[in-house]
Each structure stands twice: as structure tokens, then as C-alpha cells.
Amino acid sequence: MAIDGKDYDFLKIEPHWQTFWEKNRTFRSEDDPTKPKYYVLDMFPYPSGAGLHIGHPEGYTATDIVARYRRARGFNVLHPMGWDAFGLPAEQHAVKTGTHPALNTQNNIANFRRQIKALGFSYDWEREIDTTDPRYYRWTQWIFLQLFKRGLAYVDERPVWWCPELKTVLANEEVVDGKSEVGGFPVERRNLRQWVLRITAYAERLLADLKDLDWPDSTKRMQEAWIGRSEGAEILFGLEDKSLGDLRVFTTRPDTLFGCTYMVLAPEHPLADKLTLPAQRNAVEAYKKKAAAKSDLERTDLAKEKSGVFTGSFAINPVNGARVPVWIADYVLTGYGTGAIMAVPAHDFRDHEFAHLFNLPIVQVIKGHVPGGKLANEVLRIPVNGNFVDVDTQISLEGTMVNSDFLTGLTSHEARAKIASWLEEKKCGTKKINYKLRDWLFSRQRYWGEPFPIVWISRDDYVRLGRPGPKEPIEYASDDGKQISCAIPVPESALPLKLPEVKSYLPSGTGESPLGHVTDWAEIWFNHQTGEAVPASQPKPAGNAWVRGRRETNTMPQWAGSCWYYLRFIDPKNDHAFADPRLLAYWGVPDLYVGGAEHAVLHLLYARFWHKVLFDLGAVPQDEPFKKLFHQGIILGEDGEKMSKSRGNVVSPDTIIASHGTDTLRLYLMFLGPLEAMKPWNPRGIEGPHRFLQKVWRECIGPDGAPHPKISATAADSPELEKVLHETIKKVGDNIEALRLNTAISFMMEFVNALQKTPQVSRGTVLTFLQLLAPFAPHIAEELWEQLGEKPSIQHAPWPQFDAVKFAAAEVTLVIQINGKHRAELSVPIGLVQDEAVRLASEHPRVAPYLAEKTVRRIIYVPGKILNLVI
Fold first, then answer.
1. What pLDDT was estimated at residue 393?
2. Staple partner for 429: which of 84, 230, 419, 423, CB 3.0–4.6 Å?
3. Are 199 and 439 in contact (CB under 8 A)?
């Protein structure tokens, strides 16, 4: 592209090369098994209406640098982009405006695509995917059916946020301080029928296989804590009212059983009502109602004030027959263990606070451990959906047992083994492994999500059709208990099951999604063999395969489409499978996966679960989805706070591109600091990278717009410049490999400084430098490559090779010590022999005075490092 003038005109040059790359399909990935492959992937974005903010391009720039570098190294690179496009905001917009969520979503995608293309990323846009495209979610539905058939999907009554005033189920993010975000109406917890995925069946594998992953240690620790494997015992406490049976608790510390002075049930525990005596009924009901308005996060917050209510009932401690009062408190959840705990307030912080509040006994059973000390567990704070969850992680609590009858005097380790055997012998307990991980709630009462490929039919019809479901039928009863419905799958050949058009996106008012309004879609005659359906308002078609049914009206959560999208990029247009097995074998899974740490325990755990299921099916050749994971740091606003519209500190990349150019923005994002670090945006700092690129331009292009006259096609470079060049080739390559991209830029800046001081430079040296710059600032590199007479694209040029001989040091610094104390330093030739080193040191003006009239008794010489003269 012909450019006149001495300055880099990014407003003309950058769009030109973006058009060139797109027209020439420069970054198209070829399915060529003869070449070594490299698959580099970003966590794909949700296309919000606000568009990209400055934090998005940080990770995208890093992966783009790696992708361009790997192509230059001869790899066949797969570097795709797509859209995680189902989501609540599009549905909320539809409720307010009546606009179909698909239209709003496509407008947002178009804006995101425009912004991303303006950043010059080398994505293969021919592989673009969109989770809301029926051609994509057909395979999301197919994967769900595999889970369904293997017994890994079931239905259960689970609590959701319900707003009586709005007559709708709310998502967690729509509830603020116990009220609806819209209108500020009180909300409550209500049980609804939900689809649940049995992720706990894979808990042990999900935990054990973490050790083989090249992931940040912090992320692996978060997943370990979230899965929360605990070895302990399940203990049976008898109840004074023997008609109620036993109260089961799980504990990791059965050795502290003699220190149990009260018990706590979750408010939702099935025995809570039965154990509540009449005198306590009103207090318990009021407490349960209050607890129903709290989220699990609020209930388990360590900083919150403890609360509870006595049921009036007592349990019996199996080891000593003591009467133990049974309380209800919201810090115990039904989802972990049995929903009941034995409280040992002398050795657990939360139990200790509770006991003090309600004046309950505290019995120390481990010598030397301060009562109430937080020694039995520590807390790991895990980011989840913008909030932090406190997760207890088990650590060692060892000591000598006291006040523990037959366990007294034993170490706690010995006591655990003895009490476990005692409990099993007395048939009041068993050893057990438990997990904090809960099965995955997989339903949403929304319109804008993947429809479940499930039809509910009567139990009689289910039996008549030969039980066309999983081995264990999935059933639910009507509210009056008279009608039992069974789930059957839509045949795979009938996928995708598409979302119907609806007149209103408003909730149904009954807890169902808006799909419950669409009678002709939901109430059907269904052919279980072909998947055909006709509205139930029409006559039943002829044939035994037809049955009266109702479609599942819940939709899948946004996580569904993001659990497997990395596989679809491999073969995005395949209509016969989610991906060709031969391509799965070639491309495999991403070699590098980059995204935010906030996804540590949801997206990354769910994706691992689905991938392991697909591996067990033989559908994928590896049992883990992401070999290497890297988390980019958060870019804060100029005020040091997280960017948000409400704070007014959001920076749009569009603004920076218009004022300084894409290449400047890319360089600055990488130069802010280590990629993994959190750092604030500084608008003044961007001038440095901008000046650097202008300097590069002026070193290559003269004032007349022609190649700079100092660049020679025949002259040889000075040894000093050759040394700097070859050092730069090595250091830039090494730092890209290690994702130390800010350091790589520093080395390129040092080279340009050396280039400035050189009166003449070979054309080959300048071209080599442009190849190093190209992954970071591709537009200016392309333009200068062409201006210096090379045929575009620079992306096809192989990565430069360094010659280590060129930068091998001729001299080293030798530290001179007298009796171990630093006295001087000398620049000496490599390989200097000891006698010559002593001679040179003796002549040094800062050393000679110490040697005058002294005897050197010993010489310690480490060539190239230290000479120590002992006098």
C-alpha cells in the first residue's frame, strides 16, 4: 500500500491490511494431518449489548500473538472465535421491548464481530459458531440425550427464587438483598421440578485427574475445594422419639464425637417439621421463612451473624448416651452431607460462635487446641459469577485426645481409626467418603435457551411403548399425586428441536418458562419413533407410535453451549456428527486455553464433566478438554476499580483505535505488566507504545515515503548490531513461549534503540526485526514488509533463527573478594586461568592495598564468577 509521509498513518494502513487478510483468507486453518498442529483458544464471549470493553482484547491479543508465532514456526494453527449467545440479558430485553431475543442477539454479535475484526486478530472466521444457531444446539441437545440415556440426568424438586408479585422465577443475578431487581419486590425460595445432571458420579475422576493438567495451581486448588472430597464417617444419632428413626450426620472428625454438645439441621431437612415440638412451632416456621429468602452464599458467609432456633427435641449421642439438643440453623445446607451436623464447638469456629450465642455447652476433646480455634479447616475464597464463595478445605488437626472415655490419651489419628471400628461394630456408623460437589441444576424457567429434547407421557403409555427411556425411568407426580408422567427422548434423527415463536416473552405466572404459553408446541401428539409432532388440539394421527404428550418447557442453562464448543470449532459445518472422528484425532483439544479465573469452578468443571462423558462414550479420544490453561489478569478502571457502566470507568477499544490505532492498543495491553497480573488502565501510558511504533516507522521509511536511506541491500551489519539482533530473536521467542509478552516487547524496544544509533543497517536485519514485531503489531509489520520490497503477507515468512555464536560473550565480570568480602570487579576474558586472574586482581587499585605486606594463604577461584583471596 503506497503511503506518503514520515509518520505511520494507522487510520489508513490498519483497515487496509484487515481487508487484505479477509480477502486472501490468510488465517484459514487447513485440516492437513501432514503438518504439526497447534490449537489455541480464547474463552468465547457473551455478546452483550454494551460491546467489547478494554478487558476483552487483553487475552485475545495474547492468544493472537501465540497463534501468529506458531504459524511462523511451521505449525498448522487453529485459532477460532464464536459466541456464547444464549443468556438472560437478551430475554430481559425481549420482555421489555417485544423484540425477539434472536434479533437482539444477532445485532450484538454483529457489533462484537466488527470490534474484534478491528483489532486485527488472526481468527479463522470460516469456523465461527453461535450457540443459539439450531445447527449448533442440535448437538448440545444430542449430548444431553447421551447423558439422559446413561442415567446422568434426572428430575428433582429444587429451590429457586420466586417473586409472588412478578409471578416468575428469578435468576440469582436478578435478586438483590432479598428483593427483585425489577420493582424491589420481596422474593422467596420455592421448590420446582428441575432437571439435574449427575456430575457427582464423576467427582473422583474430576479430582484425581487435576494432577495431570498444566493449569495454574490456584485454579486446581479451587476445583479441589469445590469438589471437596472428605473422608470420614456417617454416624447415626438415635432420637428420643424413636418413631422418627435415626438422625444421620456426616463428619470428617468422628474422633471428636465426645465433644458433640448439640446438633444442627438445615431448615429444609425432611425431619425439621417432625422434630419441632408444638411449643416451638411458630418460632421454627418464622425462622424457616426468613431462611427461605437467603441465598446459599448469604447463608454460608463466614462474616454473617449466626442465627438459629431450637426444635425442642433431643438426639442421643451414640458414644456416651448424652442428650443432645437439636437446633435448626441456616448455616447448614441440605446439599452437602446429610443436611445435618454434629456440632463440636470446642474445635470448630462456626459451631463455637453459635454455642456462645445460645449458651450451649463447650467440651474440649483435643489437648492443646484452643477452644473454638479454626484449626480443623481453612477457607478458600473462590470467584463465582462475580461473587466470592467461601469454601472450607480440610487441613490437619492433630493432638492428644482428652475427655473422650476410651479414646483419651490416643493421638487424634489413632482415635479416628478406633472410633470408626467402634461405630461399625456397634452398627451406629460407617466409614464414608463425601463430596461438597453437588449435582448440577440444569433447568432454567426461561425462553431463550436450548429446548430439552424430552416429552412427558403417562406411565401407562410409557409401559405400552416398551419403556423407551433410560434403565431407571425418570418420573414425576402431579401436585395431587394422581398422575405419574415419564420422560422419553426425542429421537436423535428429529434434532434439532427448535424454539417456537411466541407472542409473549413474559413468564407464565406458574413457575414454568414462557414456553408453557405455547400450547400448540407444548401439548402434542408425539410419534416416539420419528419425533414428529402435531398439536394435541388436532385429532390423533393413526398408528401405535403416536402418544399424547407434553414437551419439557424448561430450557437449558447458558453453560450448556459452552461445555463443548471447543470441539465444534474442529468441524463446525458437519451435519452428521458434532465433529468428524478423524479431525478430532488430528486437532484434539486446545493446546492453550486462555480466559478469566472467574470460570475456575463452573465452566471449567462443567466442561471437564461433559468431556469425560463423551470420552466414556468413545466420542472423543482424550479424557480432558484443556491441556494448558492460562488466566489473564483483570484490567481495572483508571480509578483502580473493576470496570462497570455504573462507575463510569469503562474504556471502549473503539475509542483507543480511533485515537492511537490497533497496533498501539495491542502493544500497550501486553506492555501493561505480566499477563496474569491485575493492573489498572492508564490512558497516559499508551503514549509510550505509540511513540515506539512511530520510531519503528521512521527507522524504516524516510521523509520522502521511500525506504530509509540507511537501509542497505549490500552492507554488512556491525558485530554489535548482529549481537543485539540475535539476542533479540532468542529472547522474543523464549518470552512468547512463556507468555512473558511484556518482556518480549521490552527486548524489541532495546533493539530499536540500538538500530537508531546505527548509521547503516542491512535490509535483512530490518526484515528480520519486522518478523519479530509482526505477532504483536501485525499491521505496521505488514506495511513495512511490503514497503521494503517483500511480497505480502509477512504471516507466511518463517520465524527467524538465532545464531548463539553471534551473541556469545567475549568477556565476563569477575568478582574479587578479600577474605570473603567484596572489594572489586574485573571484566576478564572467558577462560581466564587462575594465575592470570590473581595477577590482574593484584594490580587493581582497590585490591592492591589489601595485599601489601600480606601473605595469600589460600585462593578460591570459580572461573568467570569469583576470585577470593584468603590473606
1. 45
2. 423
3. yes
N-terminal to C-terminal alpha carbon distance within the chain: 71
With a cut of 60, say whether residue 74 has pLDDT above it: yes
Handedness of CA 668, 674, 678, 684 (dihedral sign): negative
Share of the chain above pLDDT 70, in %: 96
> Quick one: cell of 647?
462507575
Q: What pLDDT score does 377 carry?
A: 46
What is the structure's pLDDT at 730?
96
Contact status, residue 20 vs residue 793, Cβ threshold 8 Å: yes
Cα-based distances in Å from 858 to 828, 831, 838, 839: 21, 21, 11, 15
State which H helix or E strand residue 57 sits in: helix 56-72
Rounded distance between C-alpha atoms, residue 14 and residue 822, angstroms: 55
Contact call for residues 248 and 304 (beta carbons, < 8 A): no
CA pair distance 365, 393, nearest whole angstrom: 21
Q: Can you give the pTM of this predicted structure?
A: 0.87
Distance (Å, whole) CA 325 – CA 306: 17
Strand 179-180 relative to strand 175-176, pairing = antiparallel
- How far apart CA 197 and CA 438 sit, in angstroms, is 9
Report DSSP state, residue 805: G
The SS3 of residue 617 is: helix
- CA–CA separation, 428 and 659 (whole Å): 74
Closest to 236 in 3D by CA, of 259, 255, 256, 257: 257
* Cβ-contact 729, 69 below 8 angstroms: no
Beta-bridge partner residues of 524: 535, 549
Q: Please report the sign of the dihedral spanned by the C-alpha atoms of residue 607, residue 612, residue 613, residue 614.
A: positive
Contacts of residue 544, Cβ cutoff 8 Å, sequence gap at least 6: none
Q: Are strands 533-535 and 546-551 parallel, antiparallel or unpaired?
A: unpaired
Query: Grid coordinates representing 363?
Result: 467440651
Looking at this protein, which amino acid is placed at residue 282? N
C-alpha distances in angstroms, 51 versus 47, 281, 650? 7, 53, 11
What would the grid cell of residue 818 be? 578479600
How do residues 696-741 score in pLDDT, each as one tens digit? 999 999 988 899 999 999 888 998 899 999 999 999 999 999 999 9
